[in-house]
Each structure stands twice: as C-alpha cells, then as structure tokens.
Hints:
Blueprint: H1 4-13, E1 24-29, E2 34-36, E3 41-48, E4 55-64, E5 69-75, E6 83-91, E7 96-107, E8 112-121, E9 126-130, E10 136-140, E11 149-153, E12 155-160, H2 162-175, E13 179-182, E14 189-192, E15 199-202, H3 205-215, E16 217-218, H4 221-227, E17 240-245, E18 248-254, E19 261-264, H5 267-277, E20 279-281, H6 283-286
Parallel strand pairs: 1-11, 2-12, 13-20, 16-17
Antiparallel strand pairs: 1-3, 3-8, 4-7, 4-9, 4-10, 5-8, 6-7, 9-12, 13-14, 14-15, 17-18, 18-19
Helix pairs in contact: 3-5
Amino acid sequence: MNKNILLAILILLAAPSVSLAASAKLLLYSNSGAYSINKELPIKLVMNSGGEPGINAVESKISFNPKELNIKRIELTNSIFDLWPLKPKINNASGTLSFAGGTTKPYKGLAGTILTIIFAPQKNITTNITLSTSTSQALTADNLATNILTQAAGGSYQIVSKLNYNKLELYRNKSLGKVLINDKQKNNLSYVNPLDRLRYDFATSTEIEYLYKRFAQKNTSIYIKKYEKSKFPTSVAGKFLSSQTGTTTTYYYIGPISRKSYKLDSGQAAYKLFQGIGAPTPWAEISRIPNGI
C-alpha cells in the first residue's frame, strides 16, 4: 500500500508523542451467516484501534468475487472518519473496493464503523469477502505514523434462495435468547441476542462476562425480586438483566423457555452455567446465524 496517500492528513493531525505498542484490527461485521439472494447484504468495516495512542488514518483494499457479489453503494453515515484523501472506489469488474480515510480526532475505541458496504448477491453460493494486512494499514495518531495493523479479517457468507432463507429465519427466531454449544468443539458457545438478533461467540469466562455486562438491561431490585421465585415476563426471556444496590451491580440471565432467572456471580460462573444449560447444536446450523462483535 502507498503510505504517502495518508501522509497529507498525518502532517496536519500528528501530535508529538511516542507510539505505544498497540495492536489494531480491521474486521467485517458480520463476518458469517446466511443471506437471501433477493436482499441486500450490508457489511460494516469496523476498526479496533487497540487503545492508546489511537488511530487517525486507515487505508485498505477489500476483495470479492464479482460473479458472486456486486457492490450497490457505500454508506458513510456514522463513520469514525471525516477525511477521505481517497474516497471509497468501487470496481465491480475486478471485485475490489479501495479507500483511504482519516479523522481529525484520534479514534481509540474497539468497534468504530469506518463504512458500510451494501452488496447485491448474484447467485446462491458460499462466497468470501477478503481483507489482508498486506493490502491494508492503520496508522497511529502521533508523529511516528506507525502501521500497527496486526489483523485484517474477512468473512464467509452463505447466499441462499428466498425459500431457504425464510426457513433459516424461522430457526433463527426459535434460537433467540438461547445459548448454543458447538457439538464438535464443546468449549465454543454462542449466544443469540434477542436485542439485535445476532450471534455472539464465546469460548472463555472473560468473553461471556463482557457480553452479559454489555447487553444487560437495567432494572430495579424490586423488579427482580418480584419475579425471581416465579416466571419472568416473556418480554425479558433470553435476555441479561442487571440491578444495582449501592455500588454493587448484580447480573442475571433469564431462560428463554423457562423464564427462570439465573444469577451470574462471575464470568467463570456464567461460563459453567451455560455449558450446563446450553443446547448442543451442529456448527453448520449455528454459523448460519449472522454474528456480531
């Protein structure tokens, strides 16, 4: 990649500092799942900056098979970037998308949207969208402009007929709020979030603790006590809840079918719980549900 494309931004934006040993990632969201042949396929390109010192310039080339996918348009709404020395350039003939963008304020977050790509599927097939560190870079927001991109992860998508997609949607709806266990790798679990209908994979206690704290809906302790010895309302089935007493926050998982509450004392306790009550499921079925990050 031509680093000079971004230097015009960096000369103006760089602050005198020392680049820290951060590690940035470029990710697609979602990066898997089944999608209908007759519907648009929206994919977000997301930046994980790795924290300090932050990122203020990214350049990348994304590749796809033009016989299987075409890009209809690019959406920049809510982008973390406000400068585009190379505006997103679509080439449906060669199957590429190139861009170079930057921001006047260093991005230090973990899941910032750079752009959204609206694909139009061309045939029923499993197709790939490719990202690579060899064709991408993320430069630090300091006077060193160090490329700290260590991962650029593409995705694999199942394009199916309208009929098959409708069947998969029924399965997805039945899975909302459930924890699914990969039947071949039993340490890998997935939670199907009823809030956004996406699949969130986890394989450690730290990952599930992050998920239930991230998605927990705040409630009063009075509300929790009202239902904890009976069934919770269907409106919270399969969801994570939290209540706060003083400085202590307590987390709960509400069973999607039983509507029973399970207290989550720690990530380790939650992981053990879900290994016990999760449903063993073939990965081929789990992977058809689009994933979140």
